[in-house]
Amino acid sequence: MPLSVIVKIWTFIVPLIWKLFKIAFSLDWVFTLFENPPKASAAAKKTLNVSEPRNFDSIPGPWPSLPIIGTQWLYMWFGPYQLHKLHFANEDKYAKYGAIVKEHYLWNYPIVHLYDKNDIEEVLKYPSKFPLRPALEAQCIYRKSHPERYKSVGLVNAQGLEWQNLRSKLISDLARPTIIEHTIKQTNIIADQFIDQVRCSIVKDSNTVPLFERLIYRFTLEGIVAIVLDQQLGSLRDEDSPMVEKLMLDTDKLFEVCHDTMYGLPLWKYFPSKAYNQLVECEDIIYDVFAGYVEQAMKKMPDYNSDLGHSILKRIVAAEGVDIRDKIATLIDIVSGGIDSTGNAIIFLLFNILSNERARTEVYREVDEVLSTGTLLTTEILQQMPYLKACVIESLRLSPVAPNVARLLEKDFVFQNYHVPAGTLVVCETGVVGWQEHHYENPRQFFPEGGMEGGRNKILFFPVPLGVGGGRCRGKGVADQEMRVVRAKLLQNFDIEFLEPLETIYKFLISPKGPVKVTVKDRF
């Protein structure tokens, strides 16, 4: 047996034996075992009105919490939940235990889930210079092992001053209205190519479009590369490109293995697990492909300091005080992160509109009234379609792609009259908030009118999936614009019907479980 394997086994076994020894000679786990019996769901949802906050250990939640594995048994093969259906598990926990729920992760590490709008608002709007978020540990370890490529663990995983430095110097411009408006021309070009590709993909006898979701992801890939890297891959013209197909598969797989390494048992820390090996493979391929495009783009702009214009690429490359490795990694993370997140949101948006007869009729009416054949969509024209904007917001509520936001508390809080100390990991279940009846009438129905002027489903604060406060997504405006442009052009050109309800799967993001089956008929 190789010495390296023996060392890994030894470093795993010794801490495990020590923890088992401490547990064996302590009765603490007996109390942990039964500390959170289920509460009646109706009573649990009521906020307690007493003067003295209850202690942290009395927060309701699943039980028993076992030694070492805590409540992780819930997500094992014999438990009631599945790791790839976490969005359903989180909703079920709210129904059983109420607006605050405590679980225990590996080594009985506590995690608190928040389901109350006011509590979530208090966390996400806390005035922190450096919001503390749990990092993707497996990805961090991989990146630290490749200093020739990565100066840091990247913007997504960085904390504190390092995070603030990368964020302020590299991506602050993404949210500027002038930048967002500038990208709409490129989005129109890519959307027109996408429409042509959909038209060519229609099977004449059945009017079906095989693997419709793959075309959507090709559009988001092509769009984000054009916007961020000032280049076109040609993925909508060359449907059989093995490089493009491999790239899409690996970006999708990366989300899946990040999910597995984060939520599953962390065996990858001690053994070369399948999930970690797949993460390494995906990271390598994505880096190799996109780094090549970044380097090509940089060679074309030797005097990038002279005229930055509205180019995202030029602004990132020209940023002072940032290592070139961080610039390349940030560009790669923006592109790879935007493919599935925006693609999933577009698929959910189309399904929600086209599966609702009222919304379907209204949206076709608005498109036909505002647009004419060959119209170049501008920000001014998009503003003339308020129903379209309302549909995007309502779809993000009903079908969130990112259903929660995690934070490490920087100070003590009181939630639902329970004391939660600083340093606790809290998960703000924003997706479940959007499904609560006391905020929305018929919350499981798609009702865009509710969010429009004078609508009935308006609440003062709703933490949409793209985030709020210091940790909000800087690409929100670009992604929103991309969704509205492609949806308008699709419905301007085609009558689309979904043949089956969408099944969803949780793999770090909520994604449609393909294949997505549709019929597409040309309107002209």
Automatic annotation (TrEMBL):
List the Gene Ontology MF annotations in alphabetical order: heme binding; iron ion binding; monooxygenase activity; oxidoreductase activity, acting on paired donors, with incorporation or reduction of molecular oxygen
User: Which controlled-vocabulary keywords does the entry list?
Assistant: Heme, Iron, Metal-binding, Monooxygenase, Oxidoreductase
Q: Does the keyword Iron apply?
A: yes
Q: Does the keyword RNA-binding apply?
A: no
What this protein needs as a cofactor is:
heme
Q: Where does heme bind?
A: 473
SUPFAM superfamilies for the chain: Cytochrome P450
Q: Which family does it belong to?
A: Belongs to the cytochrome P450 family.
Give the protein name, as stated in the record: Cytochrome P450 314 family
Natural source organism: Diaphanosoma celebensis
- Report the gene name: CYP314
